[in-house]
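Lecture notes, unit on protein representations.

Consider one protein chain, 274 amino acids long.
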Amino acid sequence: MCQLLGMNANVPTDICFSFTGFRQRGGRTDHHADGWGIGFFEDAGCRIFIDTEASVNSPIAALVSAYPIRSQHVIAHIRKATQGHVRLQNTHPFQREVGGRYWLFAHNGDLKDFAARPGSVRPVGDTDSEEAFCHLLNAVLAVCPDGRPSQEQLLAVVTEVAREVSRHGTFNFLLSNGEWLLAHCSTQLAWITRQAPFSVAHLSDEDVSMDFSEHAAAGDRVAVIATAPLTDNEAWTIIAPQTLLLFREGELIASAGTASTPESLSAAPSVATV
């Protein structure tokens, strides 16, 4: 399956360490070789790098690993094509403007017999992932025509869409508009928050370590979300299937269940720590 990586922080932070390990999953430590992409929110702007080359071989991915772009919201994706050709327009993360803000979306999974609701947001490529993204944005616009939902409206809409789309297959995804980061676990996702006291982390996919106490200030807080834990010496939290998490300022602030039986929103996740 595809690989997802997200970051949400309370201060602009670079993702070089995590991305160094993550990109190895695109052709070296895993077999995903159908392209990759990463998007960084910077103020009202959004810097995106996408490539159809395997991330482990991509010169652009090598640049991103070494280029300390600082952002509070990052979404990255390594693709294993199940639907749609290996082309640039089918490479995640997908980007759209809604409500005067950019929205980014990346999906891991395979949706069968899924058709998006009609709306003004339409796909450019031919993947089930982009169609699901357009479907989600059109659902947001149906509730909030100005494209600026409150947190409560956002959680309600995305929870319902995740519940609906998950009936068609695996629907792990990351979504952000530069204010927050939403992570939906259909089958597999994990997360960790790094904050004081900081320690040394060691990557699972590359023999690289980092002592975060040498790079972070006392008040820094960074949440990292990935398909599978990126380090082998930290306690990652495995997200329960059919759970939607909302992160803001590097902190988990809300969760919702997306199983067929509606569940109420809560202030804490239904997760287990490993």
